[in-house]
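Checklist before submission:
- one chain only
- standard amino acids only
- sequence pasted in full

Submission:
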Amino acid sequence: MYSNSELAGLIRDDAVHRSVYTDPEIFELEMRRIWGRAWIYVAHESQVPLKGSFFTTTLARQPVLLVRQDDETINLFFNRCAHKGAKVIEVESGRAPVLRCGYHGWSYEVDGRCKHVTGGDAAYKASGYSRKDPCMGLQKVPGVASYRGFIFASLAPDAPDLRTWLGATATSIDNMVDRSPEGKLEVTGGVLRYHHDSNWKFFVENLNDMMHAMIAHQSSAQTARVMGKELFPDDPNPPAEIQILSPFAENTSFFEEMGVHAFDNGHSYSGGKTSIHANYSGIPEYEEAMEKAYGKERVAEIFSLNRHNTVVYPGFTLKGAIQTIRVVKPVAVDQTVIESWTLRLVGAPEEMLRRSILYCNLINSSGNLVGPDDHEAYHRLQNGLTTDAGDWVSMGRYLGNEEPNDEGGFSATGSSDMVFRSQFKAWKNYMTANGAGD
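Returned file contents:
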């Protein structure tokens, strides 16, 4: 077992020890001390739209069950029967008046209270069983909170206020929601779910790594750029596929000027005034709906915020301009599942949704043109760090060049390692905090 001082010693100002990516013992500590204490994204409220609607997922690898109550509120339970411990609901989503375990038939009200035991209460009389006993119902996750429809949960009963914990990244969520003429989002369609044979931190770091894009994505994005110039040389609005893929091959100065921004708790975002989404063709019907809802001045303000990736550490990422989110699900020290979801801007034309779906298919799916470049990089990182070529992973690029920003964090040029250093500062705080010596 690592001591807190040993864990702290794995993090330097300009480097981290390779074991943070490769040691199974450290991974298990992360599951308890980071994923078991931070606010973790669970689902969007639109995924349980009606009374009795449910959605199943995992929280720090534990199965959980989100249920819409009769009074329209939402509860999050551990997905475990109080009888023998079986998962009560196995399917991902649905709607039911009663939640029934498929093993012995115990059933529960949607508020978690035990409703029925097979064979009747008399069979358990000698053991002092009572259906009125709270421990006989579904057990609630200690911390659950929602911010503008995005539901987060924490296994820690003393978790901080969610809005305070989100800090500046809350404004990324605000901007995504405000891009709807009605101020509402809906998760739509299925999920793109894919498996990486690598540590979860590689994916989280890569999202705001502005140095890799024009290198790792050269074969895919540069090809799209060349083909766009050849096939549509004079077209200011080439097909959406070209518009989506080409920016990944922008030059170094473009990504440097986008900048990166880091905050407490490991959160970050890249871009702000511009991003790879900034020059997509306008959709007149959408712009008209927005101006009707908000007025020209407010719409200009909403559209002026153009962030690339926002990372809510440790495992939730969003793209407000294209209405997609990605959710990190650690499995083992070298195994991670990534979920990609598309959201609909309620009140916007269908063309907006089609573009978001196209983006996910081109960029975020496991069989796309850009994502496999990253998958290959993660694979090489995981394998490379198993060698004895050295114990330390460099994170010293532009060390000390960051500047305070007006959101309470720090900003730096796009290719700075500042974001990674910030994430590992949070990592060390979680892993060595008071009470972390479990």
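Reviewer check: The longest helix spans residues 350-364.
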